[in-house]
Write a structure and sequence with these properties.
With 581 residues, this protein is of the alpha+beta class. The protein has helices at 2-21, 32-35, 39-42, 52-64, 68-71, 83-86, 88-100, 159-167, 188-219, 227-252, 259-298, 302-330, 336-352, 354-369, 409-414, 440-456, 489-510, 517-544, 550-568; strands spanning 104-105, 127-135, 138-149, 152-157, 182-183, 186-187, 377-380, 383-390, 394-399, 404-408, 417-419, 426-428, 431-434, 465-471, 476-484. It has 19 helices and 15 strands.
Length: 581
């Protein structure tokens, strides 16, 4: 029974959404005769009887106000002076009595809001069933008939139903007690009965759901990671609310309470049904997305995490939008015109929100093309860092200085993206500068040492080479070209360090010196400066000595000049310890 009412409730909500979102007929499909209709015919019916929903809603309002004269206008009786027309108020009173005692009307959302009515109900095109009443212990349908009430096409209680009302035996007088306190056209006792039923059903089911979750938590070994427990925790609270709504729908029609109170609560309890469905859907979306993200993290499929996150946000947004439309319709707000206006307003919105649309398209392009994933280390323009999140509008990158830079997805998809995380190996390409002054045999030994180190290391990929690259002015360069066969950056740094330390140790053991051009040039210039400073007093003394010392002075000057010139011409590869004093 509960499942059947849940299904009926879901169908009611679905039908309401479908009716709201149904496209309007295009202008070219309007009949020529309709285009030439008079302005009087275009005016709305003052009693709002154009659709079955509006007719029943306004009829109930008249009955709640105990205005049977106005309620009689919703019955299909002749408008001229006749006995049936004079019996209109009595017919309205009888209908109210029968509805209060075992009768029922369709919920607000289930009533057709189309001027043509429901065309797939196996009834004539001008008939619509809106409820049932009990006459002589038999269920009799309450039918509406569509007809002309100049100058409008309107829905009214059909003459078949009127005949059955007049044949039924009902108590005379007003169905409501004169001493009863009325709220909204119904006795306060009826409101309390219905509200008590709603509170009891929801409270009982909520407690039952809490007990079930508590029992499962005690039985499950790892409550934090159990997928079944997470599903139950996500689904039970909204399911308990949805089941409470179904129970209320089932028992509200069986209680001997005013039809006015019943219909009002059944109308607005539909909001709770929509809330329960949306709540259930949102919690299931979160639970499924959480499980999917955890599984993708175990598989290192980080790009899929971005897709799951974007899909989750999009589905939530659409779900909330459609549920908002359904709630507005439940409160009687006509959203059809607003939805149709979105077609025109959407153009203006798109023109004013070009950047937003561009970022949305950019996010879809980025995720579909997959140039990078969450957790990848990338360079985008002059920004270098790790991608932390790919959103609908922008992408956040954590830099090495621990700052977060946000780049709009429209700009990101148009930029050149260098992804360091997708490297399958790392280039090892140092240039080893050997000092001048070594023999040919020693140079061959140096090249062989580097080649041997590359061959012996297990993490160096095949095809590694070390060759004499150039005889430079300050050094003899041996160029290495090889790949470190690992995909992890930290591991590659350790291996690079190992290789360089081995080359340095083997060179030191073989007596090979590495060239330091800048240091040697600076040392040579410093030595020349020292030589000139040391010889300056001698040159000065030689110039001031007597003539007898002339030859000696000339010899000293010649020796000092020779030493200075020798210092200038000393080779760059000579270390400071080998310089001529």
């Amino acid at each position: 029974m509960i499942i059947r009412y849940l299904l009926s409730l879901f169908l009611c909500v679905t039908a309401s959404l479908a009716t709201l979102l149904a496209p309007a007929a295009p202008a070219w499909a309007v009949e020529p005769a309709a285009a030439s209709a008079t302005s009087a015919a275009a005016e709305p019916d003052p009693l709002a009887r154009e659709t079955p929903r509006s007719a029943i809603s306004n009829l109930l309002q008249a009955l709640a106000d105990q205005d049977y004269e106005r309620a009689a206008l919703y019955f299909d009786v002749p408008t001229t002076g006749s006995r049936q027309q004079r019996n209109g108020p009595e017919q309205a009173r009888r209908l109210l009595v029968l509805l209060d005692n075992g009768g029922s009307l369709k919920p607000f959302a289930s009533l057709s809001n189309d001027e043509e009515g429901e065309i797939n109900d196996d009834l004539p095109i001008d008939r619509e069933q809106v409820g049932t009443i009990t006459i002589a212990k038999k269920k009799v349908p309450v039918l509406l008939a569509r007809g002309m009430d100049e100058p409008h096409q309107v829905w009214r209680i059909s003459r078949e139903t009127i005949s059955q009302l007049m044949a039924a035996s009902t108590p005379a007088g007003d169905p409501k007690d004169d001493d009863a306190v009325l709220i909204g056209g119904a006795p306060i006792e009826d409101w309390l009965k219905l509200l008590g039923l709603a509170a009891a059903s929801f409270g009982g089911l909520w407690i039952a759901a809490a007990l079930i979750v508590s029992g499962l938590q005690r039985r499950v070994a790892e409550p934090g990671t159990n997928s079944v427990l997470k599903f139950v925790q996500a689904a039970l609270p909204p399911l308990s609310l949805l089941a409470a709504v179904a129970i209320f729908y089932t028992w509200a029609d069986r209680l001997p309470v005013s039809i006015v109170a019943r219909q009002i609560l059944l109308r607005y309890i539909g909001v709770f049904a929509v809330v329960a469905l949306v709540w259930l859907a949102l919690r299931l979306i979160d639970a499924i997305a959480e499980l999917a993200i955890a599984r993708m993290q175990r598989r290192q499929a980080r790009q899929v995490i971005s897709v799951v996150t974007l899909l989750k946000r999009t589905v939530k947004f659409l779900l909330l939008a459609f549920s908002g439309v359904a709630v507005l319709d439940t409160f009687g707000i006509d959203v059809t015109t607003g939805i149709a206006a979105l077609g025109i307003g959407g153009i203006a919105l798109a023109l004013g929100a070009q950047k937003t649309v561009e970022n949305l398209v950019g996010s879809v392009t980025f995720i579909a093309d997959r140039p990078a994933q969450i957790g990848d280390f990338v360079r985008v323009g002059d920004v270098t860092g790790t991608i932390e999140d790919v959103g609908i509008r922008s992408t956040r990158i954590r830099t090495g200085e621990r700052t977060v830079i946000t780049i709009p997805n429209g700009d990101l998809s148009a930029r050149q993206i260098e992804n360091f995380a997708t490297r399958d190996r790392f280039l090892f390409n140092p240039v080893i500068a050997v000092a001048h002054g070594i023999s040919y045999a020693k140079l061959l030994e140096a090249i062989d040492i580097v080649q041997q180190i590359l061959r012996d290391h297990e993490k160096i990929a095949e095809g590694a080479r070390a060759r004499l690259a150039r005889l430079a002015e300050r050094s003899i360069d041996i160029e290495v070209f090889s790949y470190i066969d690992v995909s992890d950056f930290d591991e590659s740094v350790i291996i690079r360090e190992e290789l360089l330390l081995q080359i340095y140790a083997r060179f030191e053991h073989a007596g090979l010196r590495l060239a330091y051009p800048e240091i040697q040039a600076s040392t040579r210039q410093f030595q020349v400066a020292l030589d000139a400073e040391a010889l300056a007093p001698l040159l000065s003394a030689a110039r001031t000595a007597p003539d007898a010392g002339g030859p000696a002075s000339s010899s000293a000057e010649t020796s000092a000049a020779a030493n200075t010139e020798a210092s200038r011409n000393a080779p760059a590869s000579v270390s400071p310890s080998q310089s001529v004093p």
